[in-house]
Every structure is written in C-alpha cells, then in structure tokens.
C-alpha cells in the first residue's frame, strides 16, 4: 500500500509563528485517520497543506504521490470538506449538485441524488436555509460524489449536535465501506474519532506527538502503577509519556514495544482518550517547564 | 466553470439588462422628437455664415424646454456612475465574498485549478461590465447626436453646449467607457482579493476610483499630448469672456472660449500678453477712458496697445488619439490589476 500523505520536515510559518513544524509522517492508504489535537495545534494547517490550499514554508509533502493541488487531475483525487462546511448560501441544493457535475469529471450524479433524497433535503431549498447538520451533509455529498481517492475533513462534526454528529459519521463510514476511500478527519475531541478511526495522529503545539494504527498504539502503551519510584530508573525502550506521584505510589503511562516484566508494577490497559490526553499534557508540560524554571 | 459563474452572476446580469432596457426605453421615447426638432431647426443644409446662429438657437430651444437638458445630463451621470457601480457591486464582492464566507475553499477543491476558476469569473463578469457601460454610452451617443452636431457648428450660450473635450462628454462617449468599466471592475476585484472583506473592499474601490476619475481630466488628460501654443490678436477671437475689472477698470482678464480656425479645439489655457510677450492684466491707461463703453472698442484699444491673447490648446483632430490613449491607459491598469489578482491567489496561497 502506498502512502496517502507523505511528509518530510514539513513546516508552515505565518509571519513569525510556526503553525506546523518539522512534521514527518507517512500515512498508509486504506485507513480512516483521525488527526487529533487541541485548538490551534496546527490541524487545519496540516490539512490545508495536504489539499494545496496552503503552500509549505519548509519541507515536502506528497499526497497520493503528487503535489497537493498541482492540477485538475490531482484535485480530482482529493475531496476536501473545509471547517464549518462552507456552501453557497444563495444557491439551492440542486445547484450545488449541478456545480459538482460541471466541475468534476468523475462526478457520480446518481450517488449524489440518492444521498440528497435519503437525507430528505429539498433540492429547491437555498443552502443558506439549511441547518448546520444538513449543510455539513450537503458539503460531504459534494466531496464524496466527486469520487476522490482520499477524503480530507477538517473538524467536520465540531459544530453539529450529537444526533447530527452520529448521522454524519455514520454516512461517512458507509461511503468508506462502499468506495474504498481513505479518509483523514480532524477533531479536537477524541470521543468523535474513537468510533470511526483506525489510525491516529496526535498533533500538539504545531508538532506531531505520536502517529500510528490505533490497535498498535493501544498495544504499545500501558498504564503502570506501583510503589513510588523515579521514572528515570525504568529499563531502556520504555518511554514515559505521563507520570503522577503520590507519597507512596507512582502511576506512569509508558510506551514500550516489549512486555512489562517488572513484577513491582501493576499493568493495565490504556483507553484511546487517556492516551491522547497523556500526549497532550506532555506537550503542554514541555511548553510550561521553561516558564516554571524561571519562576523558581 | 462557465455555468457556476453564470449561476452566481445571473441576478446581477438580469438587473443590468433591466437597467439597460429602461434606459433604452427612456431614450427611444424622447430621441425621435429631439431629432425632429433638429430637422426643423434648419441646421442641416445651412449656409456657413448662419450655421452657428441656427445651432445656438436650436440649443437654446432645447434648454428652454427643460426636459432635454435634464435627460442629457441624466444620461451622462448614469454612464459615469455605471462604471463605479459595477466596480463596487460586481468587482469588489466577486472574490471577497467567496473568501469571506469560505466558499472559495469549496470552489478550489473541485477538479478545477484556481487559475481557471479566476480566469472564467474575471472574463465573463468583466466583459459584461464593459458591454453594459459601452452599451449605455452608445445609446446616449445616438440620442444626443443632434446636440453634438449643433455644438460642432460652434453653438454656444447654454449649458448644453459642451464640446467633445469637456470632461463630462469626453468620459461618456467614444470608447473611454470601455476602459473605465474594465478598470473599475478589476479595481474592485483586486481590492476584494487583498482586503478579503466585501464592504471595506467596496469603500476602497470607491475612494480610489473617484480620485482617479477626478485626477484624469484635471491633471493627466491635458498632458497626454504636448499642447499647441499660439498667440492671436484679441480682435480675431470669435468669443471672449471678460472677467473682473472689465471696461473702465484698471485690471482686466481675458479668457478665450473659441479659437478662430480651430472649431472644436480643447482650450487648455488662455491669457493676455503684452507686446513683449509677458502675461499682463493691467489695462493701458488709454483704454480706461469713458469712450471705451463697449467690448469691441475696449478690445480694439487693447489690440492697438500690442496686447494679444496667448492660448494653449489641443486641436479637435486629436479627439480619437485622446480617446484611444486614455482607454489604453485604463485597460493597461486593468490588466495589471488582473495580473496581481492571479499572482495573489495562485502564487501566494492562503
């Protein structure tokens, strides 16, 4: 399987701030990839670079083996649903489908029509009058019916209510199953991604903290608890992601490729949410440490 | 992309078509009567000696009737405003609204490059802008043709008697409306691309367009070609206006209105010079006596003291050179603005 997104030392700077720095990734095809991180972590920037909406300041990026947004053929292979699912407020639903048909050689008109019908959208209704959930569904229809190989969604469910959220993700998963799409979707909430993603990228503070298949991530991260001890005394190959201590006890979230052999530890499984939170607080702590040292 | 452009533009297109139609109806309803008044005036086939007087009579008749004078000015104002309105309401929102509402992200992720998207939008809307403005201008030119011919015979004396070089007439006839429309439209688009918000882009467009439309006739147009200069006897002037001082005063100020032998010429400046060729405004003592009751006696007196009139002007034969040059300037500006839009939207991706 080739990579859908391949980056090397990728960076994007706005004036003096790096929105994304030193990002090296290889996302294999055939996955539903969750890109998770807090607000302002650089998720939109990374997705913007992948669609060619932005040009990199540093490094390289290839999407499906081509330069993002390089030409009509490349654009046809990537579907993109921008944040807040923009649609033409003044144009009716039907005009959006016609727009898709006119601008995409691979347009699947039957698919688009069937989907609008199933959603119960009135083709004559102005898109500006649709609810947030309906608007997102219309935008998703446009992105799916152009029959891309890779579908990129930027915070697609952030503004939706729980029901619309579930329906949106449900349809998304159906499309993935039907069309063999690769999908990258971002969110600042792990809960949104947990049910649909089988690959995870954690992006915090404009840097990629961890990336890999969800199963592999869960298999290599463990929660250890035992008598209090210095995290530095752990064996090689075991990396501490987060640690908390009481007077007598230490609780560590570690990443290790091998089994945990030390009988002093009680080993338990880690949930995806805890794992992501550990990486987020680790990155946040790294940012704060220098600040604390100055205070001392 | 043509379809989407048309779909987004069609309301404006229908509005413009309706405006053109209303203008056409207004002119078609009044034009024939204007033409019949001209036919009855006897200007056609006039003896050279009487043409000027007949033409003046004709214009005075129109002016007294009121309606035609109002319609004439209204037409000119509509054409002048058309370019500005197009820049504001077609140009500025064209890209700015897409950037503002985020629909550019939708458009740019269809299977079409940003270059093509922009090219189609600019071409179709831009050509429509030029067609509408020039259409208004041609209709007005048809309607006002009798007035233009009368002015060409040297008719004067009313506010209708604006020569082809006067700011209002020059800017609304010939091919200049094409240039203004193209410039105003691309100015609006560029402001929208740079500012990325519709309303501020409209404000900036209006401000810049207004400044340029004022600067052009005042400071740029007169110097597009080197002016002709000549010094002529005051007595040979067909029409002259005496300002302040005048008869019996110690100071005088001469302003020529028409130039003998140069019908339709654009007078840029005129002023009295003495025998040594220096500008003067002091009446010779001999000319301020009681005997100088009327203008011609005063003029003769000035002439006998060696005072002549120095004028600089653009000959009427240069009308189309001016039209082409000015249109070319505006079209070149429009092209430069278009280029900057492409550069901004494709090279520096945002």
What would your notes on this structure say?
The complex is a heterodimer of chains A (296) and B (350). Chain A is α/β, with parallel strands linked by helices. Chain A has 9 helices and 13 strands. Chain A has 2 domains: 3-205, Rossmann fold; 216-295, no CATH class. Chain A has helices at 43-51, 72-77, 93-103, 109-119, 132-145, 162-179, 190-194, 214-220, 272-295; strands spanning 3-14, 17-28, 32-36, 58-63, 78-81, 150-153, 182-187, 199-204, 207-213, 221-227, 238-245, 249-256, 266-268. Chain A has a 6-stranded mixed sheet with strand order 5-6-7-3-8-9, with helices on both faces. A 4-stranded antiparallel sheet of chain A has the order 11-12-10-13. Chain A starts with a strand and ends with a helix. Chain B has 2 domains: 2-223 and 320-347; 228-314, no CATH class. Chain B is built from 10 helices and 5 strands. The longest helix of chain B has 39 residues, at 2-40. Chain B is elongated. The two termini of chain B are 21 Å apart. The mean pLDDT of chain B is 89.
Rg of chain B, Cα atoms, Å: 25 Å
Oligomer: heterodimer
Describe the strand arrangement of the main beta sheet of chain B, using strand numbers. 1-5-4
Distance between the amino and carboxyl termini of chain B: 21 Å
Strand content of chain A: 25-35%
**What is the mean predicted local confidence, pLDDT of chain B?**
89
Tell me the number of helical segments of chain A per DSSP (H or I, 4 or more residues long). 9
The secondary structure category of chain B is mainly alpha
Order of helices and strands of chain B: HHHHHHHHEEEEHEH
- Spans of chain B of at least 5 consecutive residues whose pLDDT stays below 50 are none
Helix fraction bin of chain A: 25-40%
Number of strands of chain A: 13
Name the CATH architecture of the largest domain in chain A: 3-Layer(aba) Sandwich
Query: In this structure, how is the largest beta sheet of chain B organized?
Result: 3 strands, antiparallel
Through-space gap between termini of chain A: 52 Å
| Low-confidence region ranges of chain A | 289-296
Helical content class of chain B = 55-70%
What's the shape of chain B?
elongated
> Taking all residues together, what is the mean pLDDT of chain A?
88
Give the CATH H-level superfamily of the largest domain in chain A. P-loop containing nucleotide triphosphate hydrolases
């Amino acid at each position: 399987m080739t990579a859908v997104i391949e980056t090397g030392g990728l960076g994007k700077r706005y004036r003096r701030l790096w929105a994304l720095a030193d990002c090296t990734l290889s996302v294999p095809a055939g996955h539903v990839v969750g890109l998770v991180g807090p607000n302002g972590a650089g998720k939109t920037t990374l997705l913007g670079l992948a669609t060619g909406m932005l040009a990199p300041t540093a490094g390289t990026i290839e999407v499906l083996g081509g330069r993002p947004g390089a030409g009509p053929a490349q654009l046809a292979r990537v579907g993109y649903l921008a944040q807040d699912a923009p649609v033409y407020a003044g144009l009716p639903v039907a005009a959006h489908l016609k727009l898709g048909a006119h601008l995409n050689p691979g347009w699947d008109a039957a698919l688009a029509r069937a989907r609008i019908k199933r959603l119960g959208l009135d083709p004559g209704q102005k898109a500006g009058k649709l609810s947030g959930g309906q608007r997102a569904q219309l935008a998703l229809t446009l992105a799916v019916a152009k029959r891309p190989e890779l579908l990129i969604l930027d915070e697609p469910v952030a503004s939706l209510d729980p029901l619309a959220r579930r329906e949106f993700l449900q349809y998304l998963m159906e499309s993935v199953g039907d069309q063999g799409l690769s999908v990258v979707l971002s969110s600042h909430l792990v809960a949104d991604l947990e049910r649909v993603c089988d690959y995870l990228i954690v992006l915090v503070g404009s840097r990629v903290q961890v990336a890999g298949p969800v199963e592999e991530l869960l298999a290599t991260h463990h929660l250890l608890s035992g008598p209090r001890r210095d995290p530095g005394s752990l064996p090689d190959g075991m990396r501490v992601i987060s640690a908390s201590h009481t007077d007598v006890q230490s609780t560590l979230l570690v990443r290790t490729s091998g089994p945990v052999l030390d009988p002093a530890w009680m080993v338990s499984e880690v949930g995806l949410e805890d794992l992501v939170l550990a990486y987020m607080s680790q990155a946040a702590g790294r940012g704060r440490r220098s600040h604390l040292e100055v205070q001392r | 992309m043509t379809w989407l452009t048309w779909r987004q533009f069609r309301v404006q297109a229908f509005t413009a078509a309706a405006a053109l139609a209303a203008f056409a109806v207004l002119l078609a309803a009044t034009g024939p009567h204007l033409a019949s008044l001209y036919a009855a005036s006897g200007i056609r086939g006039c003896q050279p000696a009487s043409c000027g007087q007949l033409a003046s009579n004709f214009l005075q008749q129109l002016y007294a009737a009121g309606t035609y004078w109002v319609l004439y000015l209204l037409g000119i104002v509509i054409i002048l405003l058309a370019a500005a309105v197009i820049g504001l309401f077609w140009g500025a929102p064209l890209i700015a609204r897409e950037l503002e509402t985020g629909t550019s992200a939708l458009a740019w992720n269809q299977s079409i490059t940003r270059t093509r998207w922009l090219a189609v939008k600019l071409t179709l809307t831009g050509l429509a802008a030029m067609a509408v403005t020039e259409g208004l201008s041609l209709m007005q030119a048809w309607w006002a043709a009798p007035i233009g011919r009368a002015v060409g015979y040297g008719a004067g004396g009313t506010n209708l008697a604006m020569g082809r070089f006067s700011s209002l007439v020059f800017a609304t006839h010939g091919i200049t409306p094409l240039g203004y429309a193209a410039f105003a439209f691309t100015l609006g688009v560029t402001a929208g691309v740079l500012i990325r918000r519709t309303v501020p882009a409209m404000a900036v467009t209006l401000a810049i367009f207004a400044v340029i439309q004022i600067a052009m006739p005042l400071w740029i147009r007169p110097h597009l070609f080197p002016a002709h200069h000549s010094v002529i006897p005051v007595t040979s002037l067909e029409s002259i206006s005496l300002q302040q001082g005048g008869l019996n005063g110690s100071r005088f100020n001469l302003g020529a209105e028409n130039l003998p032998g140069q019908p339709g010429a654009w007078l840029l400046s005129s002023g009295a010079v003495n025998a040594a060729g220096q500008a003067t405004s002091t009446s010779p003592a001999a000319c301020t006596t009681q005997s100088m009751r009327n203008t011609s006696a005063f003029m003769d007196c000035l002439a006998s003291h060696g005072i002549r009139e120095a004028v600089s002007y653009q000959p009427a034969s240069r009308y189309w050179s001016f039209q082409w040059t000015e249109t070319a300037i505006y079209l070149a500006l429009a092209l430069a603005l278009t280029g900057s839009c492409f550069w901004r939207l494709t090279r520096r991706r945002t």
